[in-house]
Structures are given as structure tokens and as C-alpha cells.
Design goal:
- The complex is a heterodimer of chains A (236) and B (287).
- Chain A has 236 residues and is of the alpha/beta class.
- Chain A has a single domain (5-232), classed as Rossmann fold (3-Layer(aba) Sandwich), CATH 3.40.50.300.
- Chain A contains 10 helices and 10 strands.
- Chain A has helices spanning 43-51, 73-79, 96-102, 115-121, 123-127, 138-150, 168-175, 177-183, 195-201, 224-232, and strands spanning 5-14, 17-27, 32-36, 61-63, 66-67, 81-84, 156-160, 187-192, 204-209, 212-217.
- In chain A, strand 4 and strand 5 (66-67) form a beta hairpin.
- In chain A, helix 3 (96-102) packs parallel to helix 6 (138-150).
- The longest helix of chain A is centred in the middle third of the chain and has 13 residues, at 138-150.
- The termini of chain A are far apart.
- Chain B has a two-stranded antiparallel ribbon with strand order 1-2.
- With 287 residues, chain B is mainly alpha-helical.
- Chain B has one domain (2-276): ABC transporter involved in vitamin B12 uptake, BtuC.
- The chains are: A alpha/beta (236), B mainly alpha (287).
- The A-B interface holds A 51-53, 72-74, 77-78, 82-83, 85, 89, 91-94, 98, 101-103, 105-107, 148, 152 and B 163, 166-167, 169-170, 172-174, 176-184, 286.
Chain lengths: 236, 287
């Protein structure tokens, strides 16, 4: 069976600075994987590369067995890879509902997710539908960002640091949505700094350090020590 | 009564300036691009309408409708093949390119149509008037103002009621995140400039019917348009209408005091607003 999404020897650089060194990653249909690692490990760069915000060699990223590297972000989104960007990035000129609606701008395939089902997933958003997106609390803004990405009924949902800067109780609320998102048929890549949260939701975990994957496997197969070493580097 | 009349004439004149400015405001609001060739594009539109009227004998209004798709295509192509290449963090390249475009347009029009001043003939309409509440109002100024209202209302509907409008606003906020929504910013910019050129065609119609024009008058129209946009607050469409009206009223009031003061009074009003409200009357909350 071929993977739904795959990166092969993916490298990325910002000018002279190389951020990724040959990343190999596989996401199977229906799977949720987590990418953990400290700040600057290259997690966000990896997400931005897959989403097409950064350009890469054609063959370094494959989706549904097609080489999609180097395609622009709007085309990648139309194929069915949606991203919840780091920092939420709601559009300040748009209301909550308009932020959700624009999530389906480039891909209107129909499917489980619509305004109604997103409001079912996050009922609080329905109450605040006419507010500007930026008038909401951080947790609610994150819900809008997730709902916005779901509106396109993506095959793959990329979630970049969705718990960043949120209180633990709110993080829990947001992660409650993950099983429902999986049940709708989307495969997910979740970038997390919170190792416990990542282990709880993911089928497999990749650990990154300094632009390389240092460890991967099922959460149950990974020892605390192995993760610690892969996350911070082997203790001297 | 003479003052009421003066002010109403000024408001109606403001409609013309709002028409000059609306396209500029639209483009600036979406992509922070100041198009220095805007006035010359209006003059180009006026020559296109004149050409259609002369060659086919169409009414100027029908000719303007015929010209619209061509002007849309011109704007779309201009943005896609030229202006998109210079848009970026640096605001200087687009200014230089549109300044160059302005020079090229003026000289091309001079070559093609000579320096003779022209007018789009609109028949009896040009001198028709109606009496409303004891005031004699010209049909042409009324039509101009009504067109400006329709343009501003239409643009607002487009911006706040349609999917394309949402994409305009989202791209204006953050082009990178917009691309994650499947929006191609370059394509959105091209459509916006295309739509701006449709408004330019409407402005050109009234410019050409109301007064004489020749290839060199574009920059002066740009100044009025620019002042209207700044007075209103950058990126605000209703503000642009208000800005046009303020310049129009200042000009007619100035002219009523002393005919030599007409143009000067408009510019003075602009300076006064800029002094009191440097960000304009209705600045966008988000910038």
C-alpha cells in the first residue's frame, strides 16, 4: 500500500540557513501522526514545506502517489491538504463566520464538514459568528482556525502548534475535537511541543531535532528515555 | 439660497471626484499599490469611449458599456504581467513602474490622438436641468453623483456580500495565509485591478462628457483622486465618497467667493483635513 502523504529526503532552507536535512516522513490513510521537538527543530518548516508555502524539489513530497513538491500553496490546498497555521492567523477583516467560509474558497468538494457541522464541533463559535475573528479569546480563535481548515473537507489536516499559548483546560477542549475530525475521514499531522498530548492522540510519533528526524515509532514502543534523547540530544 | 445652491453643486461635483478616486481606493485597499497612472488610465478610457462613439455612432453610455470588458482585460493584464512583478515589501518599485506607465500612456495618446482637446458629445443631456425644491440642478451632475453612489454601494456589496469580496479582504490582510485557503493572491490582485478599470471607464465617461480633455490632463485627475482617497482614509470606500464631496464643496464654495480660488480651495481643504486627521476621516481599523 502506498502512503497518502510522503516526504523523501526533504530539505529546506531560508537563504543560507538550512532548516531541514533530508526528512523522510510517511502518513497513511486514516492515520494521525504527531511531530514533536523543541523550538527551532524544523517542525513548522516541515509543515510549511508540505503546505507549499516554501518551495521544494518536485520529488521530495508525494501526495496520493503524485509528486507535489514545488506546487504553490493554493494548488496544494485544492488537492486536499489544509493547514491550521502556527499562531492561528485569522483574517482580522473577516467575521468568525467569514473566516470559516473562506476556508472552502479553493476547494468545494462537499463532504462532512460545513458551517453547520463546524458549529456542532465548536458550539461557542456559533454564538460569536458575527464577531470579528480577532475579538475572540485565544482558544476560540484556535477553534476558528481549525474549523476554517476543515471547511475544505481536507484529506490531510496539518495542525501546527494548536496548543501554543493556551491554558491546559482549553487545550483539552480543543483536543476533544480530534477524534471527531478523524472520524470524518481526515488524516492528520499534528505538530506539538507537549509530548504527553502528542502521545495521547497520535498513532505514530516523529521526533525532530535540528532539522532531522531523530526518532519515530508508535507511542507504546517509545521509552521515555529514548524520547528525551531524541528531543534534547543524547545526554553527555 | 445661493449658498445652499453652491453647496449642493459642490456635493454633486464631489461625485465626479469620487468616481475618479474609487478605483484608486479599491486597488490601494487590497494591495497597498498606489497607481500613479490612474489619471492617465481615465483619460485613456475617455479616448476609447470617444473612438467608439465616433466610429459607431453609439450613445456614450452604450459605448462605455462596450468599453468596460476591454478596460477590465487591460487592468487584468497590466496587473498580471507587470504590476504583480514589482509588488513586494518595498513600495518604491510599483511607484516607479506606474509613473513610467503614466509617461508612456500620455505620449502614446499624444501620438495617437494629437494634443487637440476633445469632448464626448452627449447631445441635449449636457445642458438639461431639472428643478428640485426651487433649485435648478443639472442632469449631468445628478447622473454623475448617482453613478458614484451606485459604484460605492456596488463595491461595498462586492466586498462584504460575496465570496470574491471575502477573498479580497483576506488577501489584503495576509496573502500567505490566504494562499493556504486556496486563494491565488496574484489572481486576486489581477481581478481587483480589472474591476478598478471598470470604474475607471465610468469615471472616463463623465470626464469626457462634462469637460474637454486632452492627453496631458491625467495627472491633475490623479491629484483629485488621491486627495479624495486620503481625506476619506486609505482603503475606506465610503470615506472616498466623503473625500470627493469635501473637495467638491470646497471648490464650489471657493469659486463662489472668488472664481480664482476654485482649485486652490480644494487643495486647502485637503491640507486642513490632513492637518487635523492625518489618517483621514474613516481610517480602517486594521492596517
Amino acid at each position: 500500500m502506498t502512503a497518502l502523504l510522503e516526504t523523501r529526503g526533504l530539505t529546506a532552507r531560508y537563504g543560507d540557513f538550512q532548516a531541514l536535512f533530508g526528512v523522510d516522513l510517511v502518513l497513511d490513510e486514516g492515520e494521525t501522526i504527531a511531530i514533536i521537538g523543541s523550538n527551532g527543530a524544523g517542525k513548522t518548516t516541515l509543515m510549511r514545506s508540505i503546505a507549499g508555502v516554501l518551495t521544494n524539489p518536485v520529488d521530495s513530497i508525494r501526495f496520493e502517489d503524485r509528486a507535489i513538491g514545488g506546487r504553490p500553496a493554493d494548488e496544494i490546498m485544492a488537492m486536499g491538504i489544509a493547514m491550521v497555521p502556527e499562531g492561528r492567523k485569522l483574517f482580522p477583516s473577516l467575521s468568525v463566520e467569514e473566516n470559516l467560509q473562506i476556508g472552502a474558497y479553493g476547494r468545494q468538494t462537499g463532504g462532512y464538514w460545513s458551517l453547520e457541522t463546524v458549529y456542532e464541533l465548536f458550539p461557542v463559535l456559533k454564538e460569536r459568528r458575527n464577531n470579528p475573528g480577532t475579538a475572540l479569546s485565544g482558544g476560540q480563535q484556535q477553534m476558528v482556525a481549525i474549523g476554517r481548515a476543515l471547511m475544505s473537507n481536507p484529506r490531510v489536516l496539518l495542525c501546527d502548534e494548536i496548543s501554543l499559548g493556551l491554558a491546559p483546560v482549553i487545550i483539552k477542549d480543543i483536543y476533544k475535537a480530534v477524534p471527531k475530525i478523524r472520524a470524518s475521514g481526515a488524516s492528520m499531522i499534528v505538530v506539538e511541543q507537549d509530548i504527553g498530548q502528542a502521545m495521547a492522540v497520535a498513532d505514530r510519533v516523529y521526533c525532530m531535532m535540528e532539522g532531522r528526524i531523530t526518532l519515530s515509532g508508535r507511542p507504546s514502543d517509545l521509552s521515555r528515555e529514548a524520547i528525551h534523547n531524541a528531543y534534547f540530544g543524547a545526554a553527555a | 439660497m445661493i449658498w445652499v445652491d453652491t453647496i449642493i453643486q459642490g456635493i454633486l461635483l464631489g461625485g465626479l471626484y469620487a468616481l475618479f478616486a474609487a478605483g484608486l481606493s479599491l486597488v490601494f485597499g487590497i494591495m497597498r499599490l498606489v497607481n500613479l497612472a490612474h489619471g492617465d488610465l481615465i483619460v485613456l478610457g475617455a479616448y476609447l469611449i470617444l473612438l467608439l462613439v465616433t466610429l459607431t455612432g453609439l450613445s456614450p453610455f452604450v459605448a462605455a458599456a462596450v468599453a468596460m470588458p476591454f478596460m477590465f482585460a487591460l487592468g487584468y493584464g497590466l496587473q498580471k504581467f507587470m504590476l504583480n512583478r514589482v509588488l513586494g515589501d518595498d513600495i518604491l518599485p510599483p511607484l516607479l513602474v506606474t509613473f513610467g506607465l503614466s509617461v508612456v500612456l500620455q505620449n502614446a495618446l499624444l501620438e495617437g490622438f494629437s494634443a487637440d482637446s476633445q469632448r464626448i458629445q452627449s447631445g441635449p443631456l449636457s445642458s438639461a436641468s431639472v428643478e428640485i425644491a426651487g433649485l435648478n440642478l443639472g442632469v449631468m451632475p445628478l447622473l454623475t453623483f448617482a453613478s458614484a453612489l451606485v459604484v460605492i454601494i456596488g463595491l461595498n456589496q462586492l466586498f462584504y456580500r460575496t465570496s470574491l469580496g471575502r477573498a479580497f479582504r483576506a488577501t489584503s490582510d495576509d496573502p500567505t495565509t490566504a494562499s493556504l485557503m486556496g486563494i491565488k493572491p496574484a489572481g486576486i490582485f489581477a481581478k481587483a485591478t480589472g474591476i478598478a478599470m471598470i470604474i475607471v471607464t465610468i469615471a472616463a465617461l463623465y470626464l469626457g462628457m462634462r469637460s474637454n480633455f486632452d492627453p496631458s490632463i491625467g495627472p491633475a485627475r490623479l491629484i483629485y483622486a488621491f486627495e479624495a482617497v486620503i481625506i476619506g482614509g486609505l482603503g475606506s470606500l465610503w470615506g472616498t465618497l466623503a473625500g470627493g464631496v469635501i473637495i467638491g464643496v470646497a471648490q464650489t464654495v471657493g469659486a463662489a467667493i472668488n472664481p480664482e480660488w476654485q482649485i486652490l480651495a480644494g487643495h486647502m481643504a485637503f491640507l486642513v483635513v490632513l492637518l487635523l486627521r492625518p489618517r483621514g476621516l474613516f481610517p480602517r481599523a486594521v492596517d
